[in-house]
Amino acid sequence: MGCEGFMDAGKNPTIEEITEYVGESKGYWCDLTTFISDNYGVSPKMTFSKCAAKPGWNVKYQKSGKSLCTLYPEKDSFTALVVVNEKEIDQISIRLGAFGYYFTDVFKNAGSLNGCRWLMLEVADKTTLDDIKEVLMLKVKPKRKNDKKLFRVVSKNYL
Fold first, then answer.
1. Confidence of residue 54 (pLDDT cuts 50, 70, 90)
2. I want to staple 81 with a disulfide (CB 3.0 to 4.6 A). Which of 16, 70, 145, 158 is the partner?
3. HSE-up of 77 (CA within 13 Å, CB side)?
4. pLDDT digit string (tens) for 127-137?
5. Sheet holding 112-113, edge to edge
6. End-to-end CA distance of the chain
7. Residue 131 CA to chain centroid, in angstroms?
8. Cα–Cα distance list, 47 to 4, 10, 145 (Å)
9. Residue 132's closest CA among 90, 63, 140?
């Protein structure tokens, strides 16, 4: 399916088509979607958005009615939207020094709406991928106990 297929509300792409479409970012896409599936036991939900900022098909993940993230496929790339509430903002702020430069910049510059920050993160490197996983674990505790080891060690200076 070409780029135009992801903009047609009448042509629902498959996960396989999206995975191929993100091309050069396929490894990051597979890593993140596998992480979500393994740790939260949720399936992707395909939705079509008419939003001016990111129109077209996207993939949403929710756990117990709570949004984990939305993935927006792009040609050879994808963007992850993670919405964080006040509690999560505080937790991220405490750990901010452990996150990558790009994530930190997006986080600091994200506007607030109803006490939440909408973080639109282009996933172009392993650091950003790991930062997104970290935030997802802050949002919703993973179902497996041994996944706690994925949390970064926070310096005493940040506590």
1. confident
2. 70
3. 8
4. 999 999 999 99
5. 45-49, 56-63, 66-74, 77-84, 116-122, 112-113
6. 48
7. 9
8. 16, 11, 31
9. 140
* Token pair of 59 as six digits: 């993939």
Its pTM stands at: 0.85
Helices (H), 85-154: 86-95, 101-109, 126-139
Q: What tokens appear for 118 in the block?
A: 């909408």
Pull the structure tokens for residue 75.
């040609």
CB 44 within 8 A of CB 30: no
Cβ atoms of 51 and 142 closer than 8 Å: no
Q: How many angstroms separate the CA atoms of 116 and 154, rounded? A: 23
Is it the case that residue 140 has pLDDT exceeding 60?
A: yes
**Length of the chain counted residue by residue:** 159
Token pair 């970012």 is found at 25
In terms of C-beta density within 10 A (0-12 exposed, 13-18 middle, 19 or more buried), how is residue 27 classed?
A: exposed
